[in-house]
Amino acid sequence: MITPTKQINRFFLLATGPLLGLLIALFIGGANIDLNRDKVSFAPDSEIPQVTGQIAQKLDAAEGAAKLTASSIKETAELYHKTTSTMSTIVETAQQSANRPEAIYNKRITVKLGTPFQTIQSDKIRIELYKVNPGTYKGYAMKVKLKSPDAMKMSLGKDKLGGAETTLRAVQRHGAVAGINAGGFADSQGKRYPLSTTVLNGEYLTGFEPTFKDLFFVGLSKSGKLIGGKYKNKADLDKLQPSFGASFVPILLNNGVKTTIPQKWKTSPLRAPRTVIGNYKDDQLLILVIDGRDENGSSGATLPELQDKLFKLGVQDAYNLDGGGSSSLIVNGRVVNKPSDGQLRPVPTHFLFFK
After folding, report:
1. How high is the mean pLDDT in each 10-residue block of the chain (355 residues)?
2. Between β-strands 251-254 and 334-335, what pairing exists: parallel, antiparallel or unpaired?
3. Which of 94, 145, 180, 301 fits a 20 to 30 Å CA distance from 267?
4. Which stretches within the chain are classed as H helix?
5. 273 Cβ neighbours under 8 A, 6+ residues apart
6. What's the pTM value of the predicted model, to 2 decimals?
7. What is the Rg, in whole angstroms, of the alpha carbon atoms belonging to the chain?
């Protein structure tokens, strides 16, 4: 159907036909213009309708071609969008399928902990807090998924060797969302020094000390994995690329197997406030902080009890950190546990978690 606009355009084309026909006929109709000797010959008048008709036919053909091209472009665009949408759906489905085993495993280990009473979520970390109360002791479990290696760090008391501060103060100074006490320590000349091998920002603070007695090293690798164990050679620890870590006693689980707890640590003290760190098969961390009235051995948890608990929870590797009055759990600026000293104890090393 020809629109009014097209009719007007065609009228002017026909009205100017003689002139346009003359010019266009040179290329289309074969008309000749002889400019030699000031003589000009035009195509006969009888040929003008034929030429204009040809022009109209070509215009119709061009219009049809334009419509066909526009239609093809539209169809191509629609096909492109459909293809893109389909590919997006395929990618999303594939991602969901890839994440399904992880989700199933997480559900399996989480159901053993119960229902979290607090959750912290960001693009760097996920923290879930649970209460632990098997009947013989009380405390808290903190399950941590590190989505980025820099979501966990270790701090040194007052940022200097020999310095000490409470975990709450360390959390506040560094802007962390959570924190626990880390390795053991020894006091000397009014200062508090971390025990044995200690790594901070990939550097050995006092050099490497070969493992002796029941001491172990535990920390995080540069890739964000929990590493730990006994190391007689520095090269063995270096292979794991430690980012940070501290030392204490003893190891509770190794590759999902219960280790032999030295008799000394089973009874000195028998029960006490405890801080333990471990990891699952999917590299999530589990931290237990157990309360107790004091360090006299009458309250808190025994190491075999915590070993059994961690084993049943499916933890693979577990390390006993400094306990007693040192045990501290800070979340969102609040002291979650009940320090046995009645107040937080200043210690030289802290594991901190960041949003």
Report:
1. 52 49 48 44 57 66 66 70 68 62 94 98 98 97 98 98 98 98 97 98 97 96 98 98 98 98 94 98 98 95 98 98 98 98 97 98
2. unpaired
3. 180
4. 4-15, 17-25, 48-110, 167-174, 234-238, 263-267, 303-312
5. 289, 290, 291, 292, 295, 300, 323, 324, 325, 327, 337, 339, 340
6. 0.75
7. 40
